[in-house]
């Protein structure tokens, strides 16, 4: 009998910030010779299938991957609700189901996949760290357990030490202690992170909160993972990756969003912004894109829209479903200077030399893409990991500025910050730092760079551990 083939069963998370890197990790594994079964939540599949502005059947990276000869199998799994169930409005009900009922669905699906395989496979489970289910299921089916974290290593190590932070009184954060410096976690002594910079879960006092329960449980269970993959660059977060490596085998393999099978320019140009961009001066255009939750904030949308008008800059604004959130007359008043689109390929837009800045909610994917493309940022975080991401961008790496100093957004301040980012002395300083950081990331992505080396070291270690039959040595 020949050598077994590695078969990755991948359980994707349901938010876009997780789906994109998870998809690219699947392609990366398949490109390295693994068989991949990618499991998507049914409602995410339906959402992508009806997306506006792009032919999903053409743009689907898995279709292109299979056309390139990669062995990627695709299936869906129900989260217990119909596709049109509003999971944002009913997030508590949705997450209760994910926490309590979803693991049994995953268990059944994985059992069926393994039992139906008629080839000699060494199965391993790759699941988002935000799930608590992998430890139990991997143990049941004697699979190696690979946890994939789609956010910064800094956020991972903070969550990993929740018990220590609770013991020292940092979790949950006291409302009047926003500026307390945290200096008790191994590996982050050199960074002055304050309680205000912690993720939104650290500010949640409700111990019965479903989001808090899920995160606490997930980071207890991740301590049983055989391997941890983080979508970051070792050179950007070396101290924290190194500190985690002292606990469990941890590999910085990011940014995984840059794939040879990325969406062809012929597809994203259907949004009509490519030709428009190419007609503008270098560094003169502001790119604006927020996450889906941020887009539902009417007042924010109006203040940013009016701030853009006051600034007088050219812009591309991605609003997937919320163009009606903009002030009356904005589209007409700004049509000579801007383009509003429902979808675009963000990497392609950011890599265009006419883009001079990125107004962002500080999602980790967006930050990595902005760095790769050398575009400085204006940061306005909302929740989850975004406040911590902002701290990295503005305070530590100095490749961005804050949108506002308070909690509310004012159109005049928006205009001032846009003008500061595009065409000022501050802009020159930011661009210098961004150019240096972008160079570091691109070197990491080279064939002999840290990202490539770490990924192949992970595969070698995975094979070695699979050969011994040893699993679940942590916890």
From TrEMBL:
EC number(s) recorded for this UniProt protein: 2.4.1.-
GO molecular function, one term: quercetin 7-O-glucosyltransferase activity
TM stretches of this protein: none
A Pfam family reported for this protein in Swiss-Prot or TrEMBL: UDPGT
Alphabetical keyword list: Glycosyltransferase, Transferase
UniProt keyword Glycosyltransferase present: yes
EC class of the enzyme, as a word: transferase
Family per similarity comment: Belongs to the UDP-glycosyltransferase family.
PANTHER family (UniProt xref): GLUCOSYL/GLUCURONOSYL TRANSFERASES, UDP-GLYCOSYLTRANSFERASE 85A1-RELATED
Protein name: Glycosyltransferase
Lineage: Eukaryota, Viridiplantae, Streptophyta, Embryophyta, Tracheophyta
